[in-house]
Amino acid sequence: MNKEIKNIRVRLDQLDNKLLKIIKKRLYLVDKVLKNKEFKKDIIDKKRINIILRNIQKKSIKMNIDKKVTGRIWASIIKACIDYEFRKFKKK
Question: Which residue in 84, 87, 89, 90 sits closest to 24, CA to CA?
Fold first, then answer.
């Protein structure tokens, strides 16, 4: 394998490790929000989801990042967090 590719992959692995730490922090905050939700129906907030995705699109354009890529990433994060909330929800 090309040495440059190997070096780039090491840097990608380092970024992945940072992303994992950020995801852990995000799930911690999701847990805190979930504790304040009374009903399962409160888990999905379509208005908030639309705002988040719109903001990501605007920021992506501003930062010259492919908005389709960031849109798909954030949609996946949101879906994964919603699934996580449904699994963790405890009736009060």
Answer: 84
